[in-house]
Structures are given as structure tokens and as C-alpha cells.
Amino acid sequence: MRVRESTIEQDLIDKLGELKYTLRPDIRDRAALERNFRTHFEALNRVTLSDAEFQRLLEDIVTPDVFAAAHTLRHRNAFTRDDGTPLNYTLVNINDWCKNDFEVASQLRINTDYSHHRYDVLLLINGVPAVQIELKTLGINPRRAIEQIVEYKNDAGNGYARTLLCFIQLFVVSNRDATYYFANNNTRHFAFNADERFLPIYQYAAPDNSKISGLDAFADAFLPKCTLGQMISRYMVLVASEQKLLMMRPYQIYAVKNIVECIDKNLGNGYIWHTTGSGKTLTSFKASTLLKANPAIEKCLFVVDRKDLDRQTREEFNRFQEGCVEENTNTGALVRRMLSDDAADKVIVCTIQKLGLALDGGSTRNQSRERRGLTSHAEQLEALRDKRIVFIFDECHRSQFGENHQAIKAFFPNAQLFGFTGTPIFEQNASYKRIEGEEQTLKTTQDLFQQSLHEYTITHAIEDRSVLKFHVDYFKPDGKGDDNKSRPKPGEPLAKRAVVEAILARHDTATGGRRFNALLATASINDAIEYVALFKTAQAEKQQAEPDYVPLNIAAVFSPPADVSADVKQLQEDLPQEQADNRKNPEEKKAALAAIIGDYNAAFGTNHRIEEFDGYYQDVQQRIKDQQFPNADLPKKGREKLDIVIVVDMLLTGFDSKYLNTLYVDKNLKHHGLIQAFSRTNRVLNDTKPYGNILDFRGQQKEVDAAIALFSGVKAEQARTIWLVDTAPVVIDKLKEARAALDSFLASQGLGGKPEDIANLKGTAAKVAFVQHFKEVQKLQTQLDQYTDLTAEQRDQIETILPKDELRSFRGQYLQKAEELRADQKKPGGLDEATRNAVEQLDFEFVLFASSTIDYDYIMKLIADYSGKAPGRASMSREQLIGLIASDAKFIGEREDISAYVRGLKAGEGLSEDAIRAGYEKFKADKAAQDMAALSAKHALPVAEVQAFVDGILSRRIFDGEQLTELLAPLDLGWKARAQKELALMGDLLPLLKKRAGGREIAGLKAYEA
Question: Is 854 exposed, middle or buried (0-12, 13-18, 19+ CB in 10 A)?
């Protein structure tokens, strides 16, 4: 029996009553909402407003800007009363959110000028609507509720922009069994489609990271009045630089709570084990800001390892709160800020190296100060020796295992030390050494920080889809198996030329046709230099043999000898291999790096110098991240991008890019170093990036297994299945099953298993089933497309299951049916409840059907090739070309035009690419003119005036009803006939306007979309 949505809603309201919320069944419309808010506002601020004053107050505080409303909610504000006196007010009790009044309203309807929306459940804090809960009946995917909220927010004149609903901070969606929540935001941060990044959507969890998904359990854990107040006031972050609201994840909240409790109760030191990519900077920022308000704490120092992390962390902190952390340009500036009483200096970000210099009374620099009669830094800091200072160490698996850590503890006996790490040091991996030759005492993270305060391992993150699994390909020379006699022993290097050729052969596969990019981790600076030369030679040879080959853009980064600058020296201190390498033949390495930078300048039109290495290093990092932009949008059509960056130690820790998906490994890795390096590849993007790709040239399966076992936390026995994607044979079997399921479905519809049969599907339910079946096929195909270890036999097997031409045709049919269903989603009525529910749940994931290599330019080249060669000699036939266009989601709005144009061309006609482009533009213009003439004749209107009307809408992207009235005025129709004529004309114009708008929104058209 189906559980009704109204039953789920009433059960929730009853639960909130048990949680001591005040139930307000009387608040059902805008007027009641405002009256209730006024009552609470006047009581809180001990004031009685006149009606005019209250209306002015509403005009002051109601805003379409979500960020501005969130700021108003959290701060003291000013208002001028009718008699000119000021009123300083808050909307809620911001000093103690637990002391606010919490109420529940349901089935609220909001009428504005353009909208009439109903909201299931609203939670009011002091009369301010702060949380909206949208419910779906059991079995309906909550995703549809999320899409509904996005649609409501995108409506012109919606309640979120025009009423007190602008103060909504959190949305909760649930179908009773599955519950999610997410922050409100301005439109640019509130997209919900696969091609953009998804809205950050959360499931709540217990401290052990187990999910709390049922609505009843969620209400018990998340919605108690004080808990909800804290979630909004303490655990949401207003990102000033982006005007964005950010909700902390459950594990981040538990970590902050435990650090604050440890400090409040003076319970000693502790560390947070949160895996790489889990947002440690946000967690530490929030802990720091909460400590800022604690008068018992003198200073909070966030300590990082190197200059680039210092800069990165400072920028992140300032992103969360503008100007909250200043740059410490030298040790003297750090000491001055540590001694300062200024509130802005209470939280300081610095490097451990700089802190070490400040505390080292015997350093050369301090001795120099003493000779000049100046007080040493250490002597200046004596005033802080007995104060309570909190040190938060980022990535505490690194340099803190040494003298600096001990020096801090010795100098500040009352200090509390907290560490963050994605890869703790255990007995098994406690092997840290300084390269200067002085071995440190080996200690574990537990030894140094006493206790674990919270754990969120990579295993948890993979289960949450916060990060991706890994696909590890242990490269076998010549494609042979493990019995190959020429294979080196594990850990031994292959010939570098063989590695280069293997990478060139596999790179397009590994990176999804260069949609993503890669790092090559090498064992030494000399190896990196050699690889640069080998890639240059190999690609030149490949280009000579294959004129159409487009070379990979390759760069290298490694630190130059430390005499270049103080910044580089600091950068090197946590790069042990590079530090050791730079002691041998430093001038040769300097010359080689200068040449590499010179090639980079020539390739990209930059002007970097080895003397300013930091600028080059930052440019390389930014270029890796710029992979996100489609080639068609870039001036050089993608030649601005980097495909592979060759590294030694740099970029293997602390660097994040969603568009980096592959790591080529030609160096020995183990324990935390291996996990850190692998984790560069597994940031979540969308279904075009199913996993992080590792191609290992050192046969390090034993080390991978050991690292997985070590860093899996409590789920070590399940770790391999959680961390690693299925092997190719398993995925091929799944593809076979998915194809069989598709064929079985088509047979149940009385159809054969061919793509052309899809056109004969009858009814919406059948289309829905096809879309669901084929999307599963495409996901598995996308996964296999990026496997670098497929054998020739496996490739043949995949081709047998789903031949490429057949796959392309199925994709075209999928896009056709998806478009039809998407139109059905937007039509009110017309479908039975079961079918409508099925359609509402559909997520088309068009991004899965958009190739990174096929774009407008590529299609134009193929058409020119078809035109330029005799029949049967072109790389693609006419039908193959049309099939390729129909199968790519990028051409959904244009495929009919391009296909019709191709049908009108003759093979061997000999047109150039420029002529093809010009011909296509003329074809489109002629077709648009014919369509406009036919439409105008059908409605008995002058073509020029209809064209002007359409051009006006498209130029402003706003539909103007008055212009439509003027257009129809010469027909001299009565009001009823004119209304019918309007609907008929707009019914014909709507698809034309949408097509010419290219997917961009036109305001005011919703009335005609039914």
C-alpha cells in the first residue's frame, strides 16, 4: 500500500511537536506569516511598530539576494523609525539561538505577482522562515523534490525573492526513507544538473559516520531546537568572496565540536583523521573562528608546511571570511602579530619553518640581531610563554615529526596542539627522515597528538561518494601477462622510452579523450628532465608518422637549487627527494629547468623566469585546473591546456583539481606517500569521471594493498572492494547483462533489439523504461572507455556486446526520447500517477552523452572531409556523419539543421572547411527565413513585424506582453478571439524562440509552456 505524502507530512509535524516546536496550523498564507513575524520581532526587540514602520522594515529586509539575507539574519542591524530615532535590532536572538521560539507551519501558499507556490513544511525561528522541508511519497526519488525547489526559485517573482522566504537557510527533502539537506544560495550557486557541478547535498550522519537517512531519525538527530540553531548559526559558513552559503558536512561538524570541547575542558592535544579531499581547510577555519571568540585563548596559529600551502590556506581562509588572515611576509612580521592585541591578529596562518625560526634563539638570524643590540625573536615571545595558545597543524603527517614540533611544546608549555591529516603515521609507516643526514626520532601521530578526536577515512569518503574509487593498472610490458620474462621485479624501473610510448598509446583512453589531464610522478629530478626530452622526441616522431596526430602539451615542475631565492628554499623543505637531488650538479639542473620553462613560454605565450619560479609554478597549477573549460570556448581551441605535468615531489600532496583524473607512476611509493599521490586523481566531478586512474610502471601491487589495509580504518577487511573499481572482466559481464536487459525490455514491447526499433516505442512508460535501461548501458560503457588495461580480446568482446555504430545509434535514440520526456516533465496533467512519478524521477544525465572530442569544429572538419573526397573514400559516410551528430548531447538543439545540411551535400563536391561553415550559416539563415515566412502566413501577420518581435525578445531575453498586443492589434480582434490568437501564435513561436536562445532562459514564457 502506497504511503501518502500527506501522511508523511503529518507524521513529521507530530514528531516536531514532540521536539517541543510550537505547531502553527493558522499560518497558511503570506499575511499570516508576516503577522506572526511582526509579533516575534516586536517582542524580541521590545518595540511596537506602526503599520507604516513595519511595511518599511519588510521593504528593508526582504531581498532576492540570499547572501545579504543570511548576513542580516546573523547580525545586528539598524532601522530609522518614523520619528527619526534609530532602532538597532536583530531578527533572532543571535547571542543564544537556543532561546529563540521555534514553530512549524505547513501547506503555506505564497502568492506574488507572478507565482503561486505551496510549501510542505516550514520551520520558523522567531517568526523567520529558516528551513523548508519538501516531502515526496515513498518510492519517489527525493531528487525530484530538489529539482522542484530549483524550479520554484527560478520562477519570476518567486516567494524566495519577494517575501520573508528570502531568509530560508536550509532545504530538507525526504521521501520518509531517504532524507537530504542543502544550503540555500543565489542562482549562480544553485544549479542542479549534471553538466554543472551538483548542488552540495548532504545526508546527515552519526559520529561514527553511519548514515541517518530515515526522516524520523533525521528529525531526532538534526531538528531538535538547539541543534538546528547551532547548525544555522555555527556550522554554516558565509563565503564573502563568492557571496555563497556553505554547509559543513557532518564529519566536519563533529571534528570542530570535539576540538572546541577539548579546549573548553583543557583535555590535552588531539588529531583529526579526515581523508584527503574532505575539506580539512574549512574544518580548521571554523574551529579557528570559534576559538577567536574564546577569551581564554590568547592566540590560534594555523601551521602549514611550505610557502605554497601557506598562501593556499591563507587564500582559503580569506575566501571563507574576507581579510581574516594577513600575509606574514617574514619572521619579524609573524612575531609582531603574535604579540599584537589586535582582534585581527588572534588567528594567524604561518609556515612551521617560519615559526621554528621565531622560536630558535640560537639561529644565525637571531644571533645577528643580538650583535646589533636587538632582542631576539625568542626573547620577544617570552611574554607569551605561559599563555594558552592553540596550534592547529595542517597535514600533520609531514614536517611536524621533528625538532620544530618539540620546540613548540617546550616553548609554550600551556599550548594545546591539534593536527589534521588524511594519512596518519602509524608504527608501520613511521619512517620520516630529514635529508640533511640527521635522522629524526620516529614517532606516530598518536604519540605526538595523544588522541584521535574524529575519523573520516577514505573508505567513508568513497562510500559517501565524496571522493572516487581508484582503477589501478599495473603495466605489463608488451601487453603480456605476469609470466613475461622481460618484466622487471616489483619496484624496478622500466626503460623510460617504453614508459613514454605506453603513456602516448593510453593517454586519450585514460583521460576520456583528453577531457581530463594527468601527472607523471618520477623518481628524481634527473628522471623528470630525461622524460621531458623523451616526450619531445617521441611526439615529433609520432607526428611525422601520423600527420593528424595532435601532440600532448607537456610541462614539468621541480624546484631549482635553493640558492635561487628564499621562497624556493622554503618550498623545498618538504620535498625530500628534490632537496637531495639538487645537491648534485645544481647548475646542470638549473639549466635544464630554465630550458623547460623556456619551452613552456614558447608554447603558451608566457614570460616566466627561473628566478621567479613561484610564478611559473602557480601558472602550471592554474593551467591544470583550466582543463574544465570546453575547447570550443577557448581562443586556441584547447592548446592553452596542459595534458601531462611531470613531477618529482611537487603537486603529489595538497593539490586539488576535479579535472585531473590520471596519475602515471614511475617512482616507488608506499604508505601515506602512495595514498597522497593517488588521491590527486579522485575528486568527484560527474559520471564522465567514474574513478581516479592510476597507471603504475613499477609493479607496486603489494604496496597498494598494504596502504589500503593501513588507511582503511575500521573497515580494513572490506577495503579493497570499497577502494578499487571492478576489474575489466567484471564490468564487461555487467555490460553484457545490461545489454541483455535492454534487449529483453525491447522484446517485451514486441520490438527487435536494433536502435531503429526505438522509434516504435508506444507510450510514455515505455520511453521511461528505455531511458533507464540504456543509461545503465552508457554508464558501464563510459567506465570501460577509460580502462587502460583492456586486452585486444576484451575490446573485441565489448564490440560484440555493443558495436560502436550501434552504440552511436542507440545514443541518438536516447537523446530523442529524453527530449520528449523532458517536455512531458514540464506539462501539467496528461499522465497517470504511476507514469508521472516515473517521469519525475528521471535524471537524464546528458553529460554522459556529450563527447569531449566531438565539437562544432570537429563536425565541420568531418563534413569538409566528406565533401572533399570521392564517394566511399571519406573517413565517414553521410549516414555515419548524421548518426554521430544525433548521438552527441551538445547538438540536441541543432542536430536537425546540421543533419539536413549534410543530406544536401554531395560527396566529392570539393568544398573547403571555410566554404562548409559559410554554407551552413547560409543554410540556417535561409531555413529560419522560410520558417518565419510560413509562421507569419499561417497567422496572417507581416513577416517583418513578426521578425522584429522575435528579435526584440531574443536581444533582451525577456518576453514582452505589450509588444505581443501591438503585434496583433492590426487584426482588430475581440478580446476572446485575441486571447486565442495569442495562445496559437505563441504555441508556434515557443520552439523557435527556445531553439534560437540556445538553451538560455527567456523570462516570462512560462505561461505559454503548458
Answer: middle
Cα 824–825–831 angle (5° rounding)?
60
Phi/psi region, residue 938 (left: phi>0; alpha: psi -120 to 50; beta: rest), is: alpha
In angstroms, the CA 818 to CA 895 distance is 14
Could you tell me which of 877, 731, 119 has the C-alpha nearest to residue 885? 877
Contact by Cβ (8 Å): 534, 504: no
According to DSSP, residue 77 is labeled: E
The most distant pair of C-alpha atoms in the chain lies apart, rounded to whole Å, by 100
Among positive and negative, which fits the CA dihedral 484, 490, 494, 500? positive
Q: What confidence score (pLDDT) does residue 172 get?
A: 95
Three-state secondary structure of 848-893: HHCCCCCCHHHHHHHHHHHHHCCCCCCCCCHHHHHHHHHCCHHHCC
**Residue 690 CB-half CA count within 13 A:** 18
- What length is written for the chain? 1010
In a 10 Å sphere around its CB, with 0-12 CB exposed, 13-18 middle and 19+ buried, how is residue 215 labelled?
Answer: buried
pLDDT digits over 333-356, tens only? 888 888 888 887 888 887 777 787
Per residue in 199-243, pLDDT tens?
Answer: 678 899 999 999 999 999 999 999 999 999 999 999 998 888 788
Name the pairing type of β-strands 116-125 and 77-80.
Answer: unpaired
Closest alpha carbon to 398 in 431, 427, 349: 431
Task: Give the C-alpha separation, 565 to 586, whole Å.
Answer: 14
> Three-state SS across 792-822?
HHHHHHHHHHCCHHHHHHHHHHHHHHHHHHH
The whole model's pTM is what? Answer: 0.79
Judge contact between 963 and 949, C-beta under 8 A.
Answer: yes
CB 201 within 8 A of CB 146: yes
Cell (9 digits) for 673: 606517500
Residue identified by cell 593551467 is 623
Cα–Cα distance measured from residue 783 to residue 731, given in angstroms and rounded to the nearest whole number: 8
**How far, in Å, CA of 631 to CA of 641, rounded?**
9
Phi, psi torsion values for 173, nearest 5 degrees: -125, 145
Which ranges in 271-402 belong to alpha helices (H)?
A: 280-292, 307-320, 331-339, 352-359, 364-371, 377-380
Exposure class string for 357-378: b at 16+ Cβ within 10 A, else e = bbbbbebeebeebeeeeeebbb
Q: For 71, list phi and psi in degrees, rounded to 5.
A: -65, -45
Alpha-carbon gap, residue 416 to 320, rounded angstroms: 24
Q: How far apart are CA 647 and CA 557, in angstroms?
A: 5
Partnered with residue 391 across adjacent β-strands are: 301, 417
Report how far residue 18's alpha carbon sits from residue 224's, in angstroms, rounded to the nearest whole number: 10
Angle, vertex CA 134, rays to CA 133 and CA 136, nearest 5: 140
CA distance 319 to 747: 56
What is the C-alpha to C-alpha distance for residues 767 and 763, in angstroms, rounded to an integer? 7
Output phi, psi for 301, to 5 deg.
Answer: -110, 125
Residues 6+ apart with CB under 8 A from 687: 194, 779, 782, 845, 847, 848
Assign 3-class secondary structure to 34-73.
HHHHHHHHHHHCCCCCCHHHHHHHHHHHCCCCHHHHHHHH
Strands 128-135, 116-125: pairing is antiparallel
Alpha carbons 614 and 609: distance in angstroms, whole number: 9
> How many whole angstroms separate alpha carbon 338 and alpha carbon 382?
11
Reported as a pLDDT band with limits 50, 70 and 90, residue 326 is low
Whether the CB-CB separation of 884 and 807 falls below 8 Å is answered with no
pLDDT of residue 747: 92
CA distance 201 to 203: 7
Mean pLDDT of the 109-137 span: 85
